[in-house]
């Protein structure tokens, strides 16, 4: 694993707005002060009023980020005062240009357009009035109306770029948040899937082993042959549980998927599942008809697990003697039905993990499942698993 180091000069840290205002004010004050100190021959030279307007303009720039409109008004008035007073310079309008730029950057397009109209009109009017006394030293009024638009346009471009970059950053942040949510969702789904697999593997076999062990204990003294048969079945069931657990854990570990160990049971293994239930003392009839079709592996796995969990619930919670299991292709669906003759509560245990897991399996395949008591007694679990996707109706739901 490699790590990358960022060069110190590549780390960009934003400059505080107040520090930036001070820096800009110092630079503008230096340039404007040099121009204000000297005026052209035949024009008014710098005096106390010139330096007063200069001090006001530079001081206003210290707060341009906080109050851009007020700073624009102050610097604009100082620039107009210089022109009307007769002090002409190439850089005397620099403070108001900086203020106009800040006005556009910190504002919005509507405010920029209003400022452009007002600044252009006032600049043209000042040029006309000042030109009568100083032989039009500032140039034509039309030209004077254009220069305030330059900083406004530049500020509008910078603000638009900042907004665009912020939008890109927000989009990237939202995309990252979406990816994190999707990753958490997949982790949760995988956690539920693993928990469901382990529950299905353990609950059925251990429940059957418990019943068989109880039979062996009851028959130990009076019918030792029955006890030995039950214990053999316990040993067989234990080996099967260990095998399935190893297979499931092996699939979860990277690089442990092998051809010799298949953790996904198929419908062909329903006979073994039924035999395990019979070993627990149930009379189980099985009817499986796939109409000769090759079913998707995931559909077969879901059907197998539904039958497995339903039989487990009968063993654990019902006083049933007979269970009928039917797995048959009906149209474009695989119908799975497990019915017992218990007192009507064999699904027992309310909405336990078993019923929740069965419904989740059916829903994951795009199907549905219902479980409930029958009018004449007993309990029925019926699920419909589409063979090619879709949500079919559950025909003959639980009464």
Outline the structure in words.
The structure is a single chain. The chain has 11 helices and 5 strands. The chain is rod-shaped, with a radius of gyration of 43 Å. By secondary structure, the protein is of the alpha+beta class. The N terminus and C terminus are likely disordered. It has a 5-stranded mixed beta sheet with strand order 1-2-3-5-4, covered by helices on one side. 60% of the residues lie in helices and 10% in strands.
Topology at a glance:
Layout: H1 17-37, H2 48-61, H3 68-85, H4 94-106, H5 109-134, H6 141-146, H7 149-219, H8 224-252, H9 270-279, E1 283-289, H10 297-317, E2 322-330, E3 333-340, H11 353-364, E4 368-373, E5 379-386
Parallel strand pairs: 1-2
Antiparallel strand pairs: 2-3, 3-5, 4-5
Helix pairs in contact: 1-2, 2-3, 3-4, 3-5, 4-7, 5-7, 7-8, 7-10, 9-10, 10-11
Descriptive keywords:
single chain; 399 residues; alpha+beta; five-stranded mixed sheet; 5 strands; 60% helix; 10% strand; rod-shaped; disordered N terminus; disordered C terminus
Strand order of the largest sheet: 1-2-3-5-4
Could you tell me how far the N terminus lies from the C terminus, measured between alpha carbons in angstroms?
A: 60 Å
**Rg over C-alpha atoms, rounded to the nearest angstrom:** 43 Å
Q: What best-fitting shape do the alpha-carbon axes yield?
A: rod-shaped
Structural class: alpha+beta
Number of helices: 11
The arrangement of helices and strands along the chain is HHHHHHHHHEHEEHEE
Largest β sheet strand count, sense and barrel closure: 5 strands, mixed
Q: Which stretches are poorly predicted, pLDDT < 50 over at least 5 residues? A: 1-11, 133-137, 255-261, 346-350, 390-399
Mean pLDDT: 76
Strand percentage: 5-15%
Assign a percent range to the helix content: 55-70%
Tally of strands? 5
């Amino acid at each position: 694993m490699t790590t990358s180091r960022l060069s110190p000069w590549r780390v960009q840290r934003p400059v505080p707005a107040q520090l930036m205002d001070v820096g800009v004010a110092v630079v503008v004050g230096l340039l404007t002060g040099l121009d204000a100190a000297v005026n052209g021959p035949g024009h008014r030279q710098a005096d106390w009023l010139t330096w007063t307007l200069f001090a006001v303009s530079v001081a206003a720039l210290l707060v341009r980020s906080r109050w851009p409109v007020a700073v624009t008004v102050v610097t604009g008035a100082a620039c107009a005062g210089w022109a009307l007073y007769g002090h002409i310079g190439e850089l005397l309008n620099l403070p108001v240009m900086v203020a106009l730029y800040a006005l556009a950057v910190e504002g919005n397009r509507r405010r920029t357009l209003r400022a452009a109209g007002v600044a252009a009109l006032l600049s043209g009017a000042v040029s006309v009035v000042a030109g009568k006394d100083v032989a039009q030293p500032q140039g034509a009024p039309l030209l004077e109306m254009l220069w305030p638009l330059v900083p406004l346009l530049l500020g509008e471009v910078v603000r638009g770029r900042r907004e665009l970059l912020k939008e890109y950053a927000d989009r990237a942040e939202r995309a990252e948040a979406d990816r994190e949510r999707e990753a958490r969702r997949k982790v949760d789904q995988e956690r539920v899937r693993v928990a469901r697999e382990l529950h299905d593997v353990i609950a059925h076999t251990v429940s059957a082993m418990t019943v068989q062990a109880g039979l062996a204990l009851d028959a130990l003294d009076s019918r030792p042959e029955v006890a030995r048969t039950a214990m053999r079945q316990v040993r067989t069931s234990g080996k099967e549980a260990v095998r399935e657990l190893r297979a499931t854990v092996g699939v979860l570990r990277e690089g442990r998927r092998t051809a010799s160990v298949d953790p996904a049971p198929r419908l062909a293994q329903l006979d073994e599942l039924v035999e395990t239930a019979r070993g627990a003392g149930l009379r189980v009839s099985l009817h499986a008809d796939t109409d000769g079709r090759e079913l998707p592996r995931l559909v077969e796995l879901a059907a197998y697990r539904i039958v497995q969990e339903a039989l487990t619930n009968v063993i654990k919670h019902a006083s049933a003697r007979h269970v009928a299991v039917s797995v048959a292709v009906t149209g474009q669906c695989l119908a799975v039905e497990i019915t017992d003759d218990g007192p009507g509560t064999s699904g027992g245990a309310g909405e336990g993990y078993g019923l929740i897991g069965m419904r989740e399996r059916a829903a994951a395949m795009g199907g549905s499942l219902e479980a409930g008591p029958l009018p004449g007694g007993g309990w029925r679990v019926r699920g419909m698993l589409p063979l090619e996707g879709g949500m079919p109706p559950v025909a003959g739901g639980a009464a």
